[in-house]
Amino acid sequence: MIDRLFLHTKNRGILILIALLAFGPLLVAQSFTVQINSNKIVAGERFSVKYLLEGAQSNPSFPDFSPLKIEGGPNVASNFLMVNGKVSQNVSYNFVLKAPKEGTYTIGPATVKVGGKTLKTQSIRLVASKAPPIPEEGKLKGKDVFIIPTLSKDEVFVGERLTVTYELYTVKNVRDLDLAKNPVFDGFGVEINPNLAQFPRDVELNGIPYRVVNVKQFHLFPQQAGEINIPNLTFRGMISERTNRNDPFSMFSIHQRTSRLLTSAKKTVTVKPWPANPPEDFSGLVGLFSFDASLNKTSLNTGEVARLRMLITGEGNIRLQGTPTIKTPESFDVFDPEPREAVRVNAEAVNGQKVFDFLLAPRQPGLFQLPSATVSFLNPETGQYERIRANLPALTVGGKAIATEISPAVIGAELENDIRPLQAARPIWYKPAGSLWIPLGVAPLILLVVFGFWIKKKADKEALPETALRRSMEAAKRQLAEAQALLEKGEPKAFYNELNRTLWAYLEDRLALPGSSQTRSALTERLTERTIPPEQQTHIFRLLDESEMAVYAPGAVAPPKDAYAQALDLLDQLESQFNPEL
Amino acid sequence: MIQAIGFWRMAFSVLVLCIASSLYATNPDSRFSEGAARLEAKDYEGAIAIFQGLLVEGQEGYSVYYLLGNAHYRLDHIGEAVLYYEKAVKQLPHNKDAQFNLKLARQKVQDRFAVAPAFFPVRMWRYVRDLFKPVIWFWAALGLIWLACGLQAFAWYKHPGSRFSPSRLALILACCAFVCVGFGVDRQQTLEVDRVAVFLETIQDVKKAPDQQSEASFKIHEGIKVQITDELNGWWQIELPDGKNGWVKPNGWGRV
After folding, report:
1. Chain A: closest CA distance from residue B191 (Å)
2. Does the beta-carbon distance from A416 to B184 stay under 8 Å?
3. Contact yes or no for A419 and B69 at CB 8 A
4. Contact A216, A205 (CB under 8 A)
């Protein structure tokens, strides 16, 4: 049986695996050992002792650890290894211990019984040293952790973006670092970069390797000229430090966590005033911008409103941009916009868009050319004012002059801040349609029944013997007509062939003559059985002979000219003999 | 005998109908126009009274709901405005005006939720479903069924042999009819099912259990739209758009 199983490679593999699983542990030598990272420990600090049982599974008995305190364990972990075909099962028992005070300790041997044998570990001698003093907050002071603000520029114009990035320099592990209190930047407009990249990088400063992380970043827009202070910011963070560097068990070493306040240095920035002679339409925009103005319609009637949209897009203090002034004809009512803005802040810039929708309501008809809209800004790179002009199309106003102000509803509808009136002239009523689904379900059923009857009737009719007879007669006549068509086309041979075939087929069908016995004698016999008169029999045979002769020996005998008419006549005669009732 | 009873019953109902219609001398259309005129003249309470009268008689529909929403919006009845705009949107889901007004009214509601859009195929289904009234879907389905049957009959007549293999086109049409029925029935259900409600009062505690003594779970404010997930002993279990749920007494609520 086993031999047979072994014949199949697949089975063999499975059997080997089973054998290995069952006997594997026996194949490897058994051992029981104790492991410890170092014999030197620190009083009051946790360390681990690991007992490893290899190649066997049994319950070891552990020594009495006192006066050492068991802080945790035994944590049992077992693994099952197969290396180069060798299987080994290891079980490890991990204890977490603590020495209560300094001194020398001895851990006795642990024993395990495996297969009648007793395995024993070595005993361990430990020396616990005195714990070092826990550093206090004040003692951590120094150059190990600090925060430096960096400015993107030392000199900026009023309104120009100044980016200040607070970077943490540290040689220690700092966690949960955040502002201790909300910063107040007097004299600045502020944008916080919400998506500050915090990838740490390594920097060497005065020979000390520091890890540097971006902590906070603000884009400041100074609002007045002069030497302006950027106040120091206070951060709070948790500094975690390993309390004992000699700890052999890095896994279990205790991290001393200290909350600490870190204050950044103060900085001063020079804010330059705007260059002299700013353009009229300059409203304090500093940066790089584009501008567009457009009308939503070019012709309207008095009493209606047109929307003039001004769109300022770019990088800089866009939030500070006030509503631009526009010049419109006297007869226009202008409704000041509620500006909408969308600002995106990243590490390099404050990008944004501000939209101003003015509503223009003309009271007088006519053709009005609106003056082009302009926006000026200060380009801080060049220190020059730049002006962007957007031309507007002419506005054709129809209708009659009106004296009154336009209705708030029209304005509301245009600004899309008021509900819309009902559009439909006639009310739309709700009519429940529930009952309609019944006929929908019934309709196909009715159709099914009707079709069923129709099919049944048709099938019944088909099944009647008269129908079958009539069908075969009709088929024969149709074939004869087709044959006649061949004759008219000048193919007499095909015609006679077809005539012959049709006659035979008809007789076969009517006389229940099997195709294999298509002989004259059989035909005569059957015809006589069915009491077909001899003269008709002669007629049949003559037609069959003549058509056969015309097919197989053309020219030997002159075929009858009216073969088609004769055949039809014959069929009718025979049919009246076979089925007198038809 | 049975026919005689049927006749008398019919005669009686005709009589009742005549009396009823004489009581309401004006037809719904003209009363609707009157309500619209009152709304125009800023007589919002008057308009509401007329429209409510129509609703009581069962004369409901998109237009009435829309104008009721407008009248309540003008009176700053945000709960009612949201309720009636919701009803209007339910009637004509693709109507931009009703959607817009509903959006405006919702902006005044204190409780706001960011609701994730539904799975794409579901959105597609709903979009198509809401394109037509159930009646239209019904007629479309019926038309398609007759067309499919006609085609099939033609196929049978032309080729009697292929009696039991329906023509491919007829099969496709029948499937389309089936889908139309699906759209129609679903649309019908959304119109009939009233498991959505809007809170019409200022503020209410939502309880953890259907019991007056139960602890309040959270508060809701006027105009909030919720799903009614259960009804028990005169309490509603409601679910907010963000998934929070609790129990409320159904006083001061309007079903959409």
Report:
1. 9
2. no
3. yes
4. no
